[in-house]
Amino acid sequence: MKRFFNVLMLVCAAFVTMNVMAQTAPEVKPKPKKFHGNPDYYLEVQGAHIFRNADVALDENPPMVNATAARKAALYCLDALHHDVRYDNSEAMREFANSRINKLVADLEKPVKKGLKIYKVYNEGMVARTKSVTVAFDLVRGTYLARRQHAGTDYRIVTDEQMKAIVDKCDVMFLSHNHTDHIDRWVVEQFIAAGKPVIANPEILANVDGVDHWRDDEGIFTNELVLKNGEKLQVKIFPGHQKPIRNNVPVITTPEKYTISHTGDQHDRKSTADWIATVKDNAPKIDALIVNCWTPNILNTLKGFDARYVITAHENEMGHSIDHREAFWLTFDKLKTTEYPYVVMSWGEWFSIK
Ligand SMILES: [Zn+2]
Ligand SMILES: [Zn+2]
């Protein structure tokens, strides 16, 4: 009897072991055992340590006006890694993105009791939140490789699950212009399926039911948007361009009278951009201006909008080649003489405004 019991235990143990192995045995290519003679492996391990430390350092030094050297050090480490194509699509970068976006998703679970909270998801995918409304801009899942290379890979910087959780919290999405780093058809479909409005310029998803096209090429398009929850947004759309295509620049006022603007990929040196200098005269006082960091003559743009706070966006967009991924250090350098308080954020960070 005892012998039978022992055999039974062995069979059970083997069964459990096999099951555990079946569940936990991902396909991992064997790692070299030493760094000497394996420089790629050395860089892979070093990159993982830098990404993990940057993630913690950002938590310890959250988004702020007048960023400290400690915060800049974390952001500049990210610049170095995001501009080194050896890390594109790497396990270390995916782990970093996953960690940051998970933190953002967790924070979105908390209600905003007062003030305005601006979240950077990825690229110019942003979420602006007050007590009564949550407004999204240009949400995309993104990819880890320059556009020409990413065919055949399906890694997303923001996973489907994470993006669904973000969309779930949003009441509306505004889309600036028809470029793939700003328009993600799958994300748009999540909004439409939930009966939430999507407001775009006429060049974006022109014949898609559920996408409303707001724009006046000759001036300011003004409208009130009633959300599913009954709350109302006052919206003005300025006729921007990323030449030669149209780029909507909305100025949105929430029921609490917070006003947010998002410049999309505003890039137009010609006279059609004269409206920029007059935004401050034609809209309520802007509390948060979300601006593409590489817009031409950014210092003049900031004067035209005259916002209380500037939040930069579009740094380290992985779909571009490294010469146009844009670095955090470059943003700090461009804005070093501005008098406007500005905040530079990585993926999965947020900033509160009173
Ligand atoms: Zn862009
Ligand atoms: Zn663009």
Question: What would you note in describing this structure?
Answer:
The chain is an alpha/beta fold. It has a single domain (46-353), classed as Metallo-beta-lactamase, Chain A (4-Layer Sandwich), CATH 3.60.15.10. Helix content is 32%, strand content 21%. It is built from 9 helices and 14 strands. Strand 11, helix 8 (298-305) and strand 12 (309-313) form a beta-alpha-beta unit. Helix 2 (39-60) runs parallel beside helix 4. It is globular. It starts with a helix and ends with a strand.
Topology record:
Elements: H1 2-24, H2 39-60, H3 69-82, H4 91-108, E1 116-122, E2 125-129, E3 134-137, H5 160-169, E4 172-174, H6 185-193, E5 198-200, E6 211-213, E7 221-226, E8 232-242, E9 245-253, E10 259-262, H7 279-282, E11 288-292, H8 298-305, E12 309-313, H9 328-334, E13 342-344, E14 349-353
Parallel strand pairs: 3-4, 4-5, 5-6, 10-11, 11-12, 12-13
Antiparallel strand pairs: 1-2, 1-14, 2-3, 7-8, 8-9, 9-10
